[in-house]
């Protein structure tokens, strides 16, 4: 599959939304625990987004998403998230995807 400008724009927008709405910037220098280790004013979110586009597209194009290994108690939430993601790759009803994501969120919020 070819990466079009529309795809690039989608990925950049998603990265910037994660930064703004979730305060999550996977391409920023971090301590490995989600904490950015450099002052935000020293970072270039556009450069981060370009790196993220490259990483994301390589992952998507190869269909290889590395999700790591969950903490045992978080496994059910990860299972629900993975299955929701897998169903976004097909023609599954969006209602199923939303249900699986709500199930994952409930697990995370319950802290089981």
List the helices and strands and how they pair.
Layout: H1 5-22, H2 45-62, H3 75-88, H4 94-110
Helix pairs in contact: 1-2, 3-4
Give an account of the 3D structure.
- By secondary structure, the chain is an all-alpha fold.
- The protein has 4 helices and no strands.
- Helix 3 (75-88) runs antiparallel to helix 4 (94-110).
Primary descriptors:
mainly alpha; 0% strand; 112 residues
SSE order, one letter for each helix or strand:
HHHH
- Helix- and strand-based class? mainly alpha
Mean pLDDT: 91
Give the helix level as a range of percent. 55-70%
Can you count the helices? 4
Q: Please, what is the oligomeric state? A: single chain
Strand residues, percent: under 5%
The total of beta strands comes to 0
Radius of gyration: 16 Å
Low-confidence stretches: none
Main sheet overview: none
Summarize the structure.
The chain is mainly α and 112 residues long. The chain has helices at 5-22, 45-62, 75-88, 94-110.
């Amino acid at each position: 599959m070819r990466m079009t400008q529309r795809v690039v724009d989608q990925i950049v927008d998603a990265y910037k939304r994660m930064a703004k709405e979730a305060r999550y910037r996977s391409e920023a220098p971090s301590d490995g625990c989600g904490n950015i280790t450099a002052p935000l004013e020293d970072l270039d979110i556009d450069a981060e987004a370009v790196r993220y586009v490259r990483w994301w597209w390589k992952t998507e194009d190869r269909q290889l998403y590395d999700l790591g290994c969950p903490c045992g108690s978080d496994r059910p939430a990860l299972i629900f998230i993975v299955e929701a993601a897998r169903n976004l790759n097909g023609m599954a009803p969006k209602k199923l995807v939303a249900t699986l994501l709500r199930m994952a969120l409930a697990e995370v919020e319950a802290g089981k």
